[in-house]
Structure formats: C-alpha cells, structure tokens
Amino acid sequence: MKTPKNLLESCDPGQRILIDLDVGALPSGTPIKIRAHVIRAEKPGPTALLLGGVHGDEINGIEIVRRAVSSGLLRHLQCGAVIAIPLLNVYGFLNYSRDVPDGKDVNRSFPGTSNGSLASRVAKVITKQVLPLVNFGIDFHTGGWAHHNHPQIRYSPKDHSAQVLAKAFHAPVTLASNTIPRSLRNTALEMEKPMIIFEGGENLRLHGPSIDCALQGIQNVLVAQGMLSTATSKAQPDTLMLNKSSWTRATKAGLFEWCISSGNWVEEGQTLGYLRDPYGIHEEEIVAPRKAFIIGHDNSPVINQGDALFHLAWVE
Ligand SMILES: [Zn+2]
What's the gap in Å between 102 CA and the centre of ligand 1? Predict the structure, then answer.
C-alpha cells in the first residue's frame, strides 16, 4: 500500500498548494476541514508554521495569517517552506466563540487524541500532521472577550530557540512567559519545535496596528531565518523585553472606567481607573501596585468581582 504523502511532500519545490485536512462534521453533516496553504521555495531550508484561529473568536490572528498568504509577503521565499493555516478552530469561528461547541478550549487540549473530545481532535491534527514537519512556528492570537492586548510576543524562557525567534520578530513588547500545560506551545516545546505566540487587539474586532505589526514580525523572522531577502525591511522602534506579569483584578462588581490603557508605562500608585456602583453612591480608585507597562486592559464597562482589568508587565 502506498503511504499517503504528508503536507510538505504534496507540494513540489517552487510551488504553492492549498490542502484540506479532515477534522469532522457539523451535526448537519457538513464536513469541517482545516485548510492549510503550503508554499515551497526551490531551495531546501527551514519549514515555518504560521497558525491563526486556535481560538475561533480571535479574528486578528486569522486576518494576520490570511494577509500573510494573500499579500505577496510569502511570494519570494528564498529557501524552505511555509505552512500557513489561517483558521484552526472552524467550529469556534462559526459560533463567534473561543472554544469548540462542547465548551472545550483547543489550546488546553494538546497534544490531543483522534478519538477524544472535539477540541482534542482539532489539536491532534496539528500535533500529528503539522508539528513533525516544521522547524519553528508562530501562533497568532487576539485578546479575550472585551480584552485588548497591546501587540506582543510571548516565548518560553526555557526555550532558547524560541527566545531567538521572539527577538527576531521584534514586536513592541517581548514577554518571557512559561507554557501552560496541554497548550500548543507546551506540546511544541516537548517536541523541540520552538513556538512563539503573538497577541494583539481584542476578540471579534480587527485592530489595524496589531495586524500591521504582526505582518512586519513575520517578515522579520523569515529574514532572520534566511528565508526572505532583507530588501524591504525598514527601521523599527526597539522591543521592550519584559519577564514578569500579573493581573490587577476588580475588588467589586460594577461599572468600570479606565484612565490609561495598554501600551503605557505607569508608576506605583498611579490611577489606572475607577470602579463605581450604578447608583452614584460608591466609587473606588484602582491604582497601579508597582511601576509596570500595561500589556492588556479590559474594555467592558460592566464588570464582575474578580474580573481581570489590567495586565501589567515588568522586568524582574
Ligand atoms: Zn487565544
């Protein structure tokens, strides 16, 4: 029996193809497929993974990979190959949801199994059919519901190769953060495939500056890997290297108004925002617990006790 070709072998050198990977079907019987672009240079070299839509409502990540494929950025690969998957979690995308319909998070279901939950089956496609073929990857995310993230790259401090990729990407913020069990980044680390995470903007909204920054980052990484020429690189501001972060959470439920948003430094004791009851009686000032850079903030005007309001990062 002939062994089926893998993604890379299906594409001849110097060619690009679109491959559908089967993952399942909707209750209606409509098949669900993960669509992967494979773009190969004539010359051999590293294989990169560009992945979006692990969380179905994180549209910036999907749009970044879509634009990378459609803009011509990958048209002149000098060597190697790119596997670009704009939308992994088709189920979540259809439902404007981070998760798959049973409520499970694909990014907490790695490495996955082919006979487990839906999220686990989606994860397995990446673990089995994609990760073994790549040398490194960039996983593009977006902030959560009503949560805006300043454009940033996250890498595992245990993974030197990922740190090199993170620096080459040259996002406005580069944050060292440990991997979460059962996440894609954790499985990639175990398979010795350096993987970095991009975060930018808020779910269900396109954020132009984050998308532009990510496309520049893809170009920077591919140039650093020798896969693209340096011709179009332009001067970019320094990246801010940070290695600690924590959340400032709401002590009370109520109305929330921020005074300062992501992308700014704050001093210890500086006013970040206010929590108020809806009746004009109580008001609580939220202050910065330390000097830090705001890498994410909540845009929801109505919040519950314990909700994450500001994501602060600094160097320790
Ligand atoms: Zn995400």
Answer: 17
Could you give the angle at the alpha carbon of 223 between the alpha carbons of 219 and 226, nearest 5°? Answer: 145
Angle separating helix axes 160-169 and 208-224, nearest 10 degrees: 120
Question: What dotted CATH number matches 16-224?
Answer: 3.40.630.10
> How far apart are the CA of 252 and the centre of ligand 1, in A?
26
- What tens digit of pLDDT does each residue of 13-53 get? 999 999 999 998 999 999 999 999 999 999 999 999 999 99
Distance, CA of 104 to CA of 110 (rounded, Å): 11
What residues does each domain of the chain span?
16-224, 245-314
Q: Give 245-314's CATH code, choosing from 1.20.140.10, 3.40.30.10, 2.40.50.100, 1.10.1740.10.
A: 2.40.50.100
Q: Each residue of 57-77: b (16+ CB within 10 Å) or e? A: bbbbbbbbbbbbbeeebbeeb
Distance 55 CA to ligand 1 centre (A): 5
What is the 99 CA–ligand 1 centroid distance (Å)?
10
